[in-house]
Amino acid sequence: MRETTATQHISAYLIVPALFVGTTLLRFALDPLLGTQNPFTIYLALVVLVTWFCGRVWGTLTSFVGALAGDYFFVEPRYTAGVASVGMVTFGATAIALVALVGRWKAAEEAQRHMARQLRERNAQLDERAGELQAATISAERAKTAAEEANRAKNRFIAVLSHELRTPLTPILTAVTLIDRDPTRAREYVRIIRRNVELEARLIDDLLDVSRIERGKVELDKHHVQLCEVIERAIEVCRPDIDARGLQFHVDFGPRPYIVNADSARIQQAFWNLLKNAVKFTPKGGSVGVRCDLRDDHVVVDVWDTGVGIEARAVARIFEAFTQEHRQQFGGLGLGLAISKALVELHGGSIEAHSEGVNKGATLTVRLPLALSDRRRLPRAADARAPRARTAPLHVLLVEDHGDTAEMMVSLLELEGHRVQTAADVTTALETAQRSAFDLLISDLGLPDKSGFDLIRELRSRGHTLPAIAISGYGQEQDIDQSRAAGFAAHLIKPVDPERLLTALGSLMKDKADHER
After folding, report:
1. Mean of pLDDT values over 78-88
2. Residues forming a β-bridge with 444
3. Which of 178, 242, 246, 366 has the least CB density, counted as fewest CB within 10 Å?
């Protein structure tokens, strides 16, 4: 049995005397019935009670005091302290035995309660740990499921990406073969090659655009543009596909013009994606159209079709990246609508999808705020695109280790009247630059011996100040920033559009001439 606490001791100092007095008074009350018989029995009950509630020490003390009280008050002659009698001794021995028995019983009960309490606490701990284990198991299972789904999604995406990137290569390779066999149709085959190269570049640009949009790195060059002219240019890009599928195309521009403050290239990209999507999902002989209207200081553009439609459950998520219904049937990465939505929202607009259901067509509605300026004084967007001025003949150092790319770029530059010398690595380029003076450097960044960054830094350290254009397959913002930090004035992403290259070349030379003045 556990020792009594200080609080229990204090309580015993009050309780035991009170119980003792009460027991003695009770014995006096029973005296007319008992007389001198059983003078100690009631005190045995007191010993048991005190031992149970106050402990063995108090029970033993009560045994001695009870023996004395019983002998003094209730054994003849009363009120005299006589010699210990047989009854007194018997009471004392019995009381001590009861103290021991009750104490052991109380200790056993307390030990049992203690063990029961420990068992409950242990069970509670086990239940808590079991709950934690179950939660951890569920979390692990969810993580495993998510990881497996992510891995499946990655594999699906890689498979789709591989398919989409390979698809344009088939007509390109076929057209190249046919040019050798039938040179009379070379112009037609070249158009096919150009169209598919542009498609390949667009797929790569879409991937980069998604990354830029997610990181908030899209920069807009906004100015006042006539939206209908932007849409018309998007229609021109989609026209070959519209004609090839035999689609009926309808245009209703309503009360044009609609002047909006926008980046014309980016907003054209948004509508091009919407039109391409409508054309892709409309069977041959179906209809696709564009209609515009004014509503509450906004221009509302509906791009509609009579195609496969959208299931109700899919309407809410068709603008998510890499999401596309009927992907295996129609192909694509599922990026176009996500990019369009992001670009429209960057212009302060909104885009929504509507469909009556499967095979009932779909309508994608774009709302863009109108510009507040006087519309009639604004320049037409088409007029703002001045033709590229031809640059005076230059001496160009071209550093490119891919033979076909170097050959094509040399041909392009020489057709423009420039004189070109080539190098396939950094060492040769430095030696060539040491022997001759050049007006411009065009360099790939990935070279066999070192990088284009090493080349431009070494040229600058040697005192060469010629303008430089970097060309690379890497086109993230950090890649462009790294090129400019190294010393390149422009960074073009492969595949390099010839017009962009010539435009960048002319811009650099104009900046150089202005600086020298």
Report:
1. 65
2. 471
3. 246
- Provide CB contacts within 8 A for 292, sequence distance 6+: 227, 228, 231, 252, 253, 254, 256, 258, 299, 300, 301, 302
Q: pTM of this prediction?
A: 0.49
C-alpha 516: how far from chain center? 49
46 touches 38 (CB < 8 A): no
CA distances from 254 to 94, 131, 232, 291, 293 (A): 116, 65, 14, 7, 6
Q: How far apart are CA 453 and CA 328, in angstroms?
A: 42
Cα 384–Cα 416–Cα 494 angle in degrees, nearest 5: 75
Report d(CA 74, CA 30) in Å as an integer: 11
Q: Please give the Cα distance from 483 to 123 (Å, whole number).
A: 65
The residue whose two tokens read 């040697």 is 462
Report how far apart, in Å, the C-alpha atoms of 456 and of each of 31, 315, 460, 467 are.
123, 51, 6, 10
- Rounded Cα–Cα distance for residues 22 and 62 (Å): 13
Computed over every residue of the chain, the mean pLDDT equals: 80
Q: What is the DSSP annotation of 111-144?
A: HHHHHHHHHHHHHHHHHHHHHHHHHHHHHHHHHH
Q: Report whether 222 contacts 263 (CB < 8 A).
A: yes
In tens, the pLDDT along 400-412 reads 988 888 888 898 8
Q: Spell out the residues 6+ positions from residue 76 whose beta carbon is closer than 8 angstroms to its own.
A: 36
Most confidently predicted of 27-41, 160-174, 475-489: 475-489
Contact present, 234 and 191 (Cβ < 8 Å): no
DSSP-assigned beta bridge partners for residue 291: 252, 302
Alpha helices in 55-85 (DSSP H): 56-74
Q: Look at residue 289 in the predicted model and tell me its pLDDT.
A: 94
Beta bridge partners of 280: none
Q: Tell me the pLDDT tens digit for each residue of 478-495.
A: 888 889 999 999 998 887
Alpha carbon distance 192, 122 (integer Å): 77
Per-residue pLDDT at 247: 92
The top-scoring range by mean pLDDT among 4-13, 195-204, 496-505 is 496-505
pLDDT tens sequence across 284-333: 889 999 999 998 889 999 999 999 888 877 777 777 766 555 444 444 55
